[in-house]
Amino acid sequence: MANYVKNVDLMRAFKESKEKGELTPEIIGMFRLLIDGISKKMSYRDPDDKEDCMSFAMEDLCKYWNRFNPDKSSNPFSYFTQIAKNGLAKGWKKIHPPKNPNTIPFSHITGED
Questions:
Q1: Cα torsion at 75, 13, 29, 5 (round to 10°)?
Q2: Rounded-to-integer distance, Cα 110 and Cα 105, Å
Q3: H or E stretch at 75
Q4: Are the C-beta atoms of residues 64 and 23 closer than 8 Å to each other?
Q5: Angle at 49 between CA 81 and CA 13, to 5 degrees
Q6: Who has the most CB within 10 Å: 25, 26, 74, 99?
Q7: How far is it, in rounded angstroms, from Cα 88 to Cα 91?
Q8: How far is residue 31's CA from residue 60's CA, in Å, rounded to a whole number?
């Protein structure tokens, strides 16, 4: 398997999984590549936090993979990428809940800790 995911390959793997009614090892590998690529663009204080967030992303991909409709869109890459991003963010919020969920901490705006 390559170090990247092509939209055409992802669509083919999705259709195979949809026919079988379960995720194939190939599409799970593609999900791992997607998550790994996205998580490299983010910074984490602790490597364990990164692994936990990646697990949340994989959980969401496994939960929502069959909601993609190839009749409405020919771009599964963007669909699954967005699910992975949301899963990473959900994991981060679960691990580090905001002190006051109705406000944005000043450190997020300035980049200070």
A1: -40
A2: 9
A3: none
A4: no
A5: 30
A6: 26
A7: 5
A8: 11
- Separation CA 26–CA 32 (nearest Å): 10
Reported as a single tens digit per residue, the pLDDT across 15-61 is 999 999 999 999 999 999 999 999 988 888 888 999 999 999 999 99
d(CA 78, CA 80): 6
Burial letters 66-84, b for 16+ CB under 10 A, else e:
eebeeeeeeebbebbbebb
Torsion sign (Cα): 30, 83, 12, 8:
negative
pTM of the model: 0.81
| DSSP helix/strand/coil, 64 | helix
Give residues with Cβ within 8 angstroms of 88, minimum separation 6.
35, 38, 39, 42, 53, 54, 56, 57
- In angstroms, the CA 81 to CA 111 distance is 25
Residue 45: count of CB within 10 angstroms of its CB: 10
Q: List the structure tokens of 46.
A: 């602790």
